[in-house]
Amino acid sequence: MSIDPRDYAVDYAQRMLTDTLQSKDEGGAFQAAINNFLYLLIFAIPVFGLNDFISSGAYVSWRDFVSKEMISLYLRNRNYYKMYLRSQESGKLDTDEIDNPDQRICVDIATFCRSFIDLFMLFFNSFVKMVSFVAILWTIEPWLVVFLGNRLHTLMVTHLGLKDGTVFHLTLEETRIKNQDSSIVCCILSSLSLVISQFDSISFLLGAGNRIYQFDRELQRIENDYRFNDGPNQDHVTEESTREGTLHRRFAADRSQKKDGGGQTQTDRIRFVTSERVKLIGVTVMAPSSLKRTIILSDVNLELQGKQRLLIVGRSGIGKSSLLRVICGLWNHGRGTVERPELGDMLFLPQKPYTPIGSLRQQLLYPREDKNEEHYDDQVLEKVLERVGLSQLVTRHGLRTQDLDFSKILSVGEQQRLAIGRVLVIKPSVVVMDEATSAMDIANEKNVYEIIGSLRDGETSIISVGHRKTLVQFHTHVLDLDRHEKGGEALRTMEDYLKEHPMQQ
Ligand SMILES: Nc1ncnc2c1ncn2[C@@H]1O[C@H](COP(=O)(O)OP(=O)(O)OP(=O)(O)O)[C@@H](O)[C@H]1O
């Protein structure tokens, strides 16, 4: 059953024409009907056009706003990476696994906004139409409204089991009213049965809404963890705390005890302090399981000066990646203090870089926020790509032209070089690399370390984890976690380390 008001307007005009033809154009009624038809067109075209314009405009603006908010929350404070880690831990933690975050942002928000606006317009139009038709009916015969009220109830029930045509005939026969009245009955009936006819759209709306709600709730949870455990308040904790600071810490302590059923205390959180250099003081790293606190590494001490490049080595599973996550503020489970620059001044490069769907330019600017984007010149970015050996990508895809899923287009080695391009854009004071060159050939790996070594006049510190022997030549110091496990001095110069491990050369 059609419920588009345009159909009813056309039906109404057609019926007027038919009536005048049936009455054999008494008194120039046909000409009047033609004129009415023309007036209706002149009035209806802009009104219906405006209706579409407003609903499409509302959809685009709303979708744009919600998507930007979600993207900003997703990318802020490395939330995307924390979400990825949480999803891996979901078997061990009481968290929901959030699948396909990109799809939730791209598709679910669009589906939700579109369905909501379409349904809203539909219900609104139907409501207005029903009220106006009831009013028309009232002007024809007031008793019809009361009579039809009772009949409509029966027809609504019948409608569930009958085809539209049958309902139409039933309506005609039962009410024994004129053509106009019967079409009014159909209108009212279709308005009332809207929820049934729109059942699919309502299901889509609820499904998409639920997926967005889950995603948002998980992001808020991660964001709260950041605010109370890794965030700026915690970074600048001093003994002479303000009232606000005291409250924040008390809240964080209450919260962590509540969350871990009292099994974890405030002392099971690593303290972060902003500093120019990376320094670890008595850092113990724990696995983020809510049930059992397994210690991965205990009492690690380390101080890294500018120009120093640290390679973290040790057997598989000893805790190299976990230590990097702690340094970058992705994990805070454990004890001790981590001093490090502001997170915005550090760049963490995992083995498989995150490539949000977008243009080549957006890949390079990630994780910089949108508002800073225009600050970067296209030519500068093209030079960056040239330096990491990816200038052919500009010819192939353009810098701004296409939104692409680069994780499917580029090889892992190329994605890793793209991530190095981000280092050139951001020029951080500390670069943390977790097997970030593992898929590159030797020449590209050498080029990458030379590039990072040349940043900030060589003042950029590097902390790497990797198993390849070739990495030794690019680092000045080694943190040997195997030695640390045996109780020996873990931090040594590369020279000393190589005396003991000549095979690594
Ligand atoms: N989310 C987690 N929850 C519980 N345990 C974890 C979690 N992530 C890592 N672990 C455990 O912590 C230990 C250290 O893991 P990590 O990834 O840091 O080792 P790694 O030295 O980097 O290993 P590899 O060289 O193989 O990459 C491992 O025993 C691992 O199983």
From TrEMBL:
Q: Compositional bias (Basic and acidic residues) at which positions?
A: 236-261
Molecular-function annotations in GO: ABC-type transporter activity; ATP binding; ATP hydrolysis activity
The record's section on SUPFAM superfamilies has: P-loop containing nucleoside triphosphate hydrolases (SSF52540)
Parts of the chain that traverse the membrane: 37-62, 119-140
- Which SMART domains does this UniProt record tie to the protein? AAA
The UniProt family comment states:
Belongs to the ABC transporter superfamily. ABCD family. Peroxisomal fatty acyl CoA transporter (TC 3.A.1.203) subfamily.
Q: Which InterPro entries match?
A: AAA+_ATPase (IPR003593), ABC1_TM_dom (IPR011527), ABC_transporter-like_ATP-bd (IPR003439), ABC_transporter-like_CS (IPR017871), ABC_transporter_sub-D (IPR050835), P-loop_NTPase (IPR027417)
Pinpoint the ABC transporter domain residues: 278-503
Specify the protein name: ATPase
> Which parts of the sequence are annotated with region: Disordered?
230-266
What PANTHER family does UniProt report for this protein, alphabetically? ATP-BINDING CASSETTE, SUB-FAMILY D MEMBER (PTHR11384), LYSOSOMAL COBALAMIN TRANSPORTER ABCD4 (PTHR11384:SF59)
The alphabetized UniProt keywords are: ATP-binding, Membrane, Nucleotide-binding, Transmembrane, Transmembrane helix, Transport
Q: Which domain of life is it from?
A: Eukaryota
Does the entry feature the keyword Iron, yes or no? no
Q: Which GO terms describe its cellular component?
A: membrane
